[in-house]
Amino acid sequence: MAKKKMTDLAKLEPEEQLKYEIAEELGLLDKVMSEGWKALSAKETGRIGGLMTKKKKEMKEKLQKEAEEQEKLMEELL
Questions:
Q1: Is 69 domain-assigned?
Q2: What is the DSSP string of the chain?
């Protein structure tokens, strides 16, 4: 049996970190770490993908709102 390479979660790209965080929230991180992503069912991977999309959308909306507020403050100051 092949030896599994341990993943350093701190050195991952933000999107990959998000994927691992969601897997942890769903209680799937141990399974992923021991057996890999291929061990997950289609339902589990779909759930992770759906939550990733939802969180990315929320982050984008938050950044847009902050940018609008900052622009409004700049206009008020000038």
A1: yes
A2: -PPPPPP-GGGS-HHHHHHHHHHHHTT-HHHHHHH-GGGS-HHHHHHHHHHHHHHHHHHHHHHHHHHHHHHHHHHHH-
